[in-house]
Design a protein that fits this description.
Strand content: over 45%
Number of helices: 0
Helix content: under 10%
Structural class: mainly beta
CATH superfamily of the largest domain: Immunoglobulins
Number of domains: 5
CATH class of the largest domain: Mainly Beta
CATH topology of the largest domain: Immunoglobulin-like
CATH architecture of the largest domain: Sandwich
Shape: elongated
Distance between the termini: 126 Å
Radius of gyration: 44 Å
Length: 410
C-alpha cells in the first residue's frame, strides 16, 4: 500500500507554525497533481498546483502553505483631542464596489474588519458620532498579505453660529432682520430672521467658512449690503454682528383695529403745519407700511385720505415730530365695515323665499341700500356698513305672498 502525506502549514506568526496533516492511502503508481480547492477559514488559498509521481513502496510528502488573511482596523478619534469616539458607522467596499460589510466604532473608537484578501478597499464613514460632523469621510486603503492595517478617521465637533443685529447709533437689538447663510463654496445653509433679542442662533454647524448676507432690514432701517465671511470652529460659538443705520423720515403703519393685521392700499397725505405739501399719494404696501423719506427736522401732519378696501376711513389726523437720523413711526388703525344679512322665509313652512325687496336706512334716516332682493336661498347681504343701528323695511313681497309692512331695527 502506498501512502501520501499532505502537510499544510498555516502561519500565525513568524515563529509559530501549526501543522495540519492529511494522509491519503492506496495510490497506484503513476503521476498525479494536487490542487488546494479550499483554504481553512481565515486563510488565503495556496493556488499553486503540485505535480508528483508515485512508485512502488514510496512515501511522498507535499507541503501547502496558507498565509493568514489580512484585517483592517478603523480608528475614530476627535480631531482636536484625539480622544476615541464611539458610534461612528462605516461601510467597506472593494474598489469594484462589492460590499464587504457595515461596521461601527466601539467605546475604544475601533472597528475591526477581519479576513480581507489583498487589494484596495474604500472605507466610507456614513454616520458620524453624536455632536460631530462627517468632514472628509472617504479613504482608500491597500491591504497586503498577512497584514493588519490601521486607518484613522478624525471628526471635529459641530460649532455654532450666532448673528447679532443692532442699531448703529444706540446699539439696541433689532428684530425682523432677515439673513441668508451659505457655505463659502456656495452651498445654501438657510434663511433666518432675528428675534426679539436681535439674534439668530444656528446650532450644529460644520466647521468651515461661511458667507452671511442681510436680505431684509428691520422696519425703519437701511439694508446693510455688505456680506460677512466668517469661520466656524468646533465647540466654540462664532459670533458676528451686523449694524443698521436708522432711516430719517416717517414710517406710516396701517393695521386692522381688531386683529392688528397689516393693511395695504391705505393712502395718506403728508404736509407741514404751514400747509406745505410733502406728498398726497403715500400708499401702504403689502406689509401695511409706507415710508416718507428724507425729511428735515420738524412737525408734520399726516391724514388718511383713502382707506383700505372693506375698512372705514380713519378721519383723525396725527401730528409727528421728525428728528434727524431717526425714523419716526406712526400707526393708523382702521375699523372694518360690518355687514347685514336679511333672510326671508314663509311664515308657515319656514322655507326660504326669493324675490323679496328691501330698503335699509340708517337710524337717523339716511338710506344706505335700496331694492336689495333676496336670492334663491332667501337671503341677501348688505356689506360695508358702519357700526350703528339700521332700519330694514320690506318694499315688495315675494310672488303670491303678502307684504310684511313692519320695519325691523338692528
Amino acid at each position: 500500500m502506498i501512502s501520501l502525506f499532505f502537510i499544510i502549514f498555516s502561519k500565525f506568526t513568524e515563529t509559530t507554525i501549526d501543522n495540519f496533516i492529511i494522509i491519503v492511502d492506496e495510490f497506484a503508481p503513476g503521476w498525479y497533481k494536487a490542487v488546494e480547492t479550499k483554504a481553512p477559514d481565515g486563510y488565503l488559498i495556496d493556488d499553486i498546483a503540485k505535480d508528483f509521481q508515485i512508485t512502488d513502496n514510496q512515501f511522498v510528502q507535499l507541503v501547502f502553505e496558507n498565509a493568514p488573511m489580512s484585517s483592517l482596523i478603523i480608528r475614530k478619534v476627535d480631531a482636536d483631542t484625539r480622544e476615541p469616539l464611539e458610534g461612528a458607522e462605516f461601510t467597506v467596499r472593494t474598489m469594484a464596489g462589492l460590499l464587504i460589510g457595515n461596521f461601527r466604532s466601539d467605546e475604544d473608537g475601533l472597528a475591526l474588519v477581519p479576513m480581507l484578501e489583498p487589494g484596495w478597499y474604500t472605507v466610507t464613514e456614513t454616520v458620524a458620532p453624536v455632536g460631530y460632523s462627517l468632514g472628509d469621510n472617504v479613504q482608500n486603503v491597500q491591504i497586503t498579505h498577512s497584514q493588519t492595517v490601521t486607518i484613522e478617521f478624525r471628526n471635529r465637533q459641530f460649532g455654532s453660529l450666532v448673528i447679532r443685529k443692532i442699531d448703529e447709533i444706540t446699539g439696541n437689538p433689532l428684530t425682523g432682520a432677515v439673513f441668508t447663510v451659505h457655505q463659502q463654496a456656495g452651498a445654501f445653509v438657510g434663511e433666518y430672521t432675528t428675534g426679539s433679542d436681535g439674534t439668530i442662533s444656528i446650532p450644529q454647524v460644520e466647521p468651515g467658512w461661511y458667507v452671511i448676507r442681510e436680505t431684509k432690514a428691520p422696519i425703519g432701517y437701511t439694508l446693510d449690503n455688505t456680506a460677512q465671511t466668517v469661520e466656524v470652529k468646533s465647540v466654540v460659538p462664532t459670533i458676528t454682528t451686523f449694524t443698521n443705520k436708522p432711516l430719517s423720515g416717517i414710517q406710516i403703519i396701517k393695521t386692522d383695529s381688531v386683529t392688528h393685521n397689516p393693511l395695504s392700499g391705505a393712502r395718506f397725505i403728508v404736509e407741514r403745519p404751514n400747509g406745505e405739501r410733502i406728498g398726497t399719494h403715500f400708499t401702504t404696501d403689502i406689509s401695511g407700511s409706507v415710508l416718507v423719506p428724507d425729511l428735515v427736522e420738524g412737525v408734520y401732519i399726516i391724514k388718511e385720505t383713502i382707506p383700505p378696501d372693506g375698512y372705514m376711513l380713519n378721519e383723525t389726523p396725527q401730528n409727528v415730530t421728525v428728528v434727524s437720523g431717526r425714523l419716526t413711526i406712526v400707526e393708523f388703525a382702521n375699523d372694518p365695515y360690518g355687514s347685514l344679512v336679511i333672510r326671508k322665509i314663509c311664515e308657515i313652512t319656514e322655507q326660504p323665499l326669493s324675490g323679496a325687496r328691501f330698503t335699509v336706512r340708517h337710524q337717523g334716516g339716511e338710506v344706505v341700500a335700496e331694492n336689495v332682493t333676496t336670492l334663491a336661498d332667501g337671503s341677501v347681504t348688505v356689506p360695508n356698513l358702519k357700526p350703528g343701528w339700521y332700519v330694514v323695511s320690506e318694499t315688495r313681497a315675494p310672488e303670491n305672498f303678502h307684504l310684511n309692512s313692519t320695519a325691523q331695527t338692528y
